[in-house]
Amino acid sequence: MSPSKTKAVFFDFMGTCLDWHSSVVKSMPASISTDDASKLALNWRRLYFLENEERFRQNLAPEDIDVTLARVLDTALSEAPGHPHLEASEKRQLVDAWHSQTAWPEVPKAIQSLREDLGLEVFVHANGTTRLQLDLTRSSGLKFDMLFSSKILGLYKPNLDAYRKALELVQRSPEEVVMVAAHAYDLRAAKALGMKTVYIYRWTDDIHEDMEQVQGEFDVFLESMDDLPNVIKNL
Q1: Which Pfam families does the annotation name (predicted)?
Q2: 14, 33, 176, 177: which has the fewest C-beta neighbours closer than 10 Å?
Q3: Average confidence (pLDDT) over 194-207
Q4: Residue 134 pLDDT more than 70?
């Protein structure tokens, strides 16, 4: 594909662009050690993905992410070392923490370069609610041309129709769009539709994926977004 063929970039949001882990760990009660808080956060995230996968398999409508996170938090706590007991207010604080996240250090510059240097459209294409995405763009300072949530699309990723609908809304063909994500399942769906795919490795995500396999699955595998504009320019 020539550089001029790419017109837009779809970004997964949490994990890919945002450091969700730090925000969640910081919101944990002081009674939970930093190490245990990290393990709890990672397992909570894992359980959230499993819940989404189950709803996807059952062809259920997207659920408010706050509702899903609140429900699986009890399971995460029961599986955590020491089985910590949290008050309702502490649980609410933990769920609220997902609405305020900072970007990974290199992300703002990469997205700015895609927009200003390459003249590309940049979109969020992620599971979750529009409210969540609005809150996260504010807390992270990241700027996108549009936010596509599973709430607004009415579909969970990796349902292929979620990608088709977003492409239809921005009037772009799959060949004109690059999907950037830290989740292999996301890129596998995008690839199946003919989109170019860039995998961003984040230690917080895809913890059960075989990274050697992942490195060979997609068009590009990157350790960060530092070189993302140059990579997309030459895809």
Answers
A1: Hydrolase
A2: 33
A3: 97
A4: yes
